[in-house]
Amino acid sequence: MVPCVGVGLILLVAGIVVLVDVNDYQHFVQDRLMAPPVVLIVVGSLVFLVASLGCYGAIKESPKLLNAFAVFLLIVFLIEIAVAIAAIAFKADLQDALRKQLDKSIARHNNADMAAWNSVHRNMMCCGIQEPKDWYDNLNQTIPASCCKPDLIEPETNDCKNAPPLFMDRYYQNMALKAG
């Protein structure tokens, strides 16, 4: 039961870390990406509380508390199965919705979009949705400087050194949908 307390705390911390990390990309996904970390936090809290109940019941040698522990453990297990099934069932829908949002964002390329993309490019070391060409096709045949590998940025122009638009060795080649 003590390891369950640790697992509960790990799930809780993981949910909080993911929630904080997801906020960096909320510009693209609105509230769709907030559900998984919230579920992790809730399940982590439940596992922690249920494991604590089990520990307390074992220490007190109380059959009622141990039975309650077993029932709650079953409920947590069923919740985890339901979440896994939902994740598998909605994976394609989430990817399609994310792709549409990212396409719209590249097409708009306003200041808020560019700030969010710059953060994605630098943090994930990627460029575009599938490749740097995503930008080239949508942004007057240019690629944002944030796609450029940091050691190749020209300080005066904030662009890649000696790089024609699709000089691929100068740009991150990972894609935003696969980098994370």
Automatic annotation (TrEMBL):
Disulfide bonds: 126-160, 127-148
Gene3D superfamilies to which the protein is assigned, alphabetical: Tetraspanin
Compartment(s) where it occurs, according to its Swiss-Prot or TrEMBL record: Membrane
Annotated GO CC locations: plasma membrane
Pfam families per the UniProt record, alphabetical: Tetraspanin (PF00335)
Keyword line: Disulfide bond, Membrane, Transmembrane, Transmembrane helix
Membrane topology: Multi-pass membrane protein
Source organism superkingdom: Eukaryota
SUPFAM superfamilies: Tetraspanin
Residues spanning the membrane: 6-25, 37-59, 65-90
KW Lyase (keyword) present: no
Coiled-coil stretches: none
Similarity section: Belongs to the tetraspanin (TM4SF) family.
Protein name: Tetraspanin
Annotated source species: Anopheles melas
